[in-house]
Design brief:
By secondary structure, the chain is mostly helical. The chain folds into 3 domains: 3-85, no CATH class; 86-123, no CATH class; 137-170. It has 7 helices and 2 strands. Strands 1-2 form a two-stranded antiparallel sheet. Helix 1 (3-16) packs across helix 2 and helix 1 packs parallel to helix 3 (52-62). The protein starts with a helix and ends with a strand. Residues 177-200 have a biased composition (Basic and acidic residues). Residues 113-132, 164-215 are annotated as: Disordered. Residues 206-215 have a biased composition (Polar residues).
Length: 215
């Protein structure tokens, strides 16, 4: 902002918050010079999303303290960061084989978004708000997720497989059991074990004495 824009901003601020008014001419000039020094890079208004008067009004409504020029400077920087965060670089029209021209066009696009001369590009952002349609609803409209041409190509193989399975079912006797389903014999043989275990042989009785054992 230049001195005239700073003076207009201070006049608007003084109307909303009389505590910032300087009645002395010398002090008013010093105030304008101080604000202009700190707000030289802050625009008064932009085409997209920034207005000093809106920032001043928001500060007066939210803060009980008098507004300082750094409050406006911080608000402008926050606005720049928000705009760049919502921006997606569009594909430059420059020749990709010319990296200098390619980067220069990207920088011009980002600078225009940061300064408010252009709106952020959201061409790659996902849409929000609308409920995505359910898969069943889309299948009811299209009939199937398989394209008609692919479905017609697959029908030939499906019919051939169905005919082959029907032929195999007719040739197989109903009482036959597939080999892969036959019971596997036990590894220990087919003989069943008896319910009692063989007894151990009895040891011969021995006579004991106080001296030792006599067979």
């Amino acid at each position: 902002m230049d001195r005239r824009e700073v003076a207009a901003a201070l006049a608007y601020l003084g109307r909303l918050d009389p505590r910032t008014i300087r009645t002395d001419t010398g002090r008013a000039r010093e105030q304008i010079a101080q604000w202009q020094e700190l707000l030289a890079e802050v625009p008064f208004t932009t085409d997209h999303g920034w207005d000093v008067r809106e920032a001043i009004r928001a500060h007066v409504l939210e803060s009980p303290y008098p507004m300082l020029p750094v409050d406006l400077a911080r608000g402008w920087r926050a606005c720049r960061r928000d705009r760049l965060a919502r921006h997606t670089d569009p594909t430059p029209f420059a020749d990709p084989d010319d990296p200098t021209a390619w980067q220069a066009e990207l920088l011009r696009s980002r600078s225009a978004v940061a300064t408010g001369a252009a709106a952020p590009s959201s061409q790659r952002q996902l849409p929000s708000g609308a409920r995505t349609r359910d898969i069943k609803e889309r299948l009811c409209e299209t009939g199937s997720c398989i394209p008609p041409a692919v479905r017609a190509e697959l029908d030939r193989y499906r019919r051939g497989r169905a005919v082959g399975e029907a032929t195999a079912a007719r040739e197989t006797p109903a009482h036959s059991v597939p080999e892969d389903r036959r019971p596997v014999p036990s590894r220990r043989g087919d003989t069943a074990r008896s319910g009692t275990e063989p007894r151990r042989p009895m040891m011969p009785a021995t006579a004991t004495s106080s001296v030792g054992t006599v067979p």
